């Protein structure tokens, strides 16, 4: 009996470690693709090498740093683990020196942004759950992890953040994070649930881009509309 208990404990430890390693790999993958989106945005706006690298790092790590600070995981992984910096700089260099190889007919910034959003939404929710947050807050932390980097990228480029004007951006992140949190509450295997959550988030974002799905947009005030008509005359 003790031997069986020991085997069970070892099996649980192995499962936890494999899940942690899987989430870590997803986090680095999300860092890379979000850094690509930041780098491509920098190239599109004709920034110099330093500007492209800064934008790559900001896009890839701002969401994770904010999440870690809020849940008490200090120092943040992006600061304490050199892999995040290395992956971000690698993506920035690739976009700066080989933009034509990365660029495709369909906007790469949107594509990489959708992939990064999906990966960060599920890893953010998973890390929040691991630090004891309740399901609602864990879902919100997943969303924050996904949208934070894109917001930083857009703000640095003096643009309205995509999350405030785009087609189902934050909603897609919420949906992906909710899958992970719901699966954890039902005690389902974490790896398939993370894959399912990321796939749902990515699919929603891509379909929203292609089909123009979006939330209702605020109408311009009457006086603002009148001013606009007056300026056209």
Automatic annotation (TrEMBL):
One of its GO terms (cellular component) is plasma membrane. It is found in: Cell membrane. Its main location: membrane. InterPro entries: Gly_transporter. The keyword Nucleotide-binding does not apply. Residues 25-98, 111-183 form the Glycine transporter domain. It is a multi-pass membrane protein. The chain crosses the membrane at residues 22-43, 50-70, 82-98, 110-130, 136-156, 168-188, 194-213. Pfam families: Gly_transporter. Keywords: Cell membrane, Membrane, Transmembrane, Transmembrane helix. The keyword Transmembrane applies. Belongs to the UPF0126 family. This is Trimeric intracellular cation channel family protein. It comes from Ramlibacter ginsenosidimutans.
């Amino acid at each position: 009996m003790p031997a069986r208990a020991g085997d069970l404990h070892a099996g649980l430890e192995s499962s936890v470690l494999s899940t942690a390693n899987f989430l870590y790999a997803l986090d680095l993958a999300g860092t890379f693709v979000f850094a690509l989106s930041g780098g491509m945005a920098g190239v599109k706006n004709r920034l110099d090498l330093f500007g492209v690298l800064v934008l790559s790092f900001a896009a890839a790590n701002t969401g994770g740093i904010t999440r870690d600070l809020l849940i008490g995981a200090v120092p943040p992984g992006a600061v304490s683990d050199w892999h995040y910096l290395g992956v971000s700089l690698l993506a920035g260099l690739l976009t700066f020196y080989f933009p034509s190889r990365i660029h495709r007919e369909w906007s790469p910034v949107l594509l990489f942004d959708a992939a990064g959003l999906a990966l960060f939404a599920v890893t953010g929710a998973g890390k929040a759950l691991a630090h004891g947050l309740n399901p609602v807050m864990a879902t919100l932390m997943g969303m924050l992890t996904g949208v934070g980097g894109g917001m930083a990228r857009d703000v640095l480029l003096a643009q309205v953040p995509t999350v405030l004007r785009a087609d189902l951006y934050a909603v897609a992140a919420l949906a992906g994070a909710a899958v992970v949190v719901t699966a954890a509450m039902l005690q389902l295997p974490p790896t398939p649930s993370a894959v399912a959550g990321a796939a749902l988030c990515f699919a929603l974002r891509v379909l929203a881009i292609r089909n123009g799905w979006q939330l209702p947009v605020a109408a311009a005030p009457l006086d603002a509309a009148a001013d606009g008509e007056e300026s056209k005359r």
